[in-house]
């Protein structure tokens, strides 16, 4: 693992970093020299990722942080100090169809995705501002811009885009940039239940993607690091879609309309 890099010596907090996209973000920041605070509601998984980073020669500590618990967030700030970069990645998504969606599942998606980010930002941003600035990257979703089957999750991710803009304006003069990445399908454990129902699912989804594949956690980590890093010094309040072209047009529909090879 490289010890120098774009983030040499920077303290980076990642939420929901015990699995999937968050884990990759933690690994990749560490590979570019950051000191990573790996957090997750599941403290054991956070500890495993921190150990993985240490085994690669990187610098990481872990702590349990349920983003819906502001007291825990305060305790993490008190224990580890103020980070330069915060990545709000923790998320859950209910799959229950709308007519049967229990209020508790609606509340849970909103609570973890939207309220959790609010609570983490309310805890850390004033300290980052007082410390001279930094960067926040929120992990949103293309579900904010269209319906893909998760009503509550979509609403929460749309709210997260709005929160990103308000915090960007509010904290801009204090030197804190706030941006959001909006991925489409990324192969992670969040898909496992659906894959158990249909093992060919991710393969079948590729037909909807102009770039011919679903995304990887590495695709997301690269964009998060761009927005958190010095190359993005004049970018704030923005939504960066990472979707293999999904939202640019409907590749499967174009196949139907043109009924011929439209590349020729
Ligand atoms: N995988 C995708 O297709 C995809 C697409 C777009 C956006 N996203 C977003 O990316 C983020 C990461 O998703 P993933 O695919 O890696 O999922 P994942 O299930 O692999 O990881 C999510 C992590 O968040 C943690 N978590 C859940 N609730 C939490 C809470 N209250 N506090 C702290 N941690 C909590 C879980 O323990 C888990 O480690 C989520 O915000 C998700 O909405 C994922």
TrEMBL record:
This is SDR family NAD(P)-dependent oxidoreductase. Transmembrane segments: none annotated. One of its GO terms (molecular function) is oxidoreductase activity. It comes from the Bacteria. Belongs to the short-chain dehydrogenases/reductases (SDR) family. Its EC number is 1.1.1.-. Residues 10-186 form the Ketoreductase domain. SUPFAM superfamilies: NAD(P)-binding Rossmann-fold domains. InterPro entries: KR_dom, NAD(P)-bd_dom_sf, SDR_DHRS6-like, SDR_fam. Signal peptide: none annotated. The keyword Oxidoreductase applies. Keywords: Oxidoreductase. It holds the Pfam family adh_short_C2. It comes from Hamadaea flava.
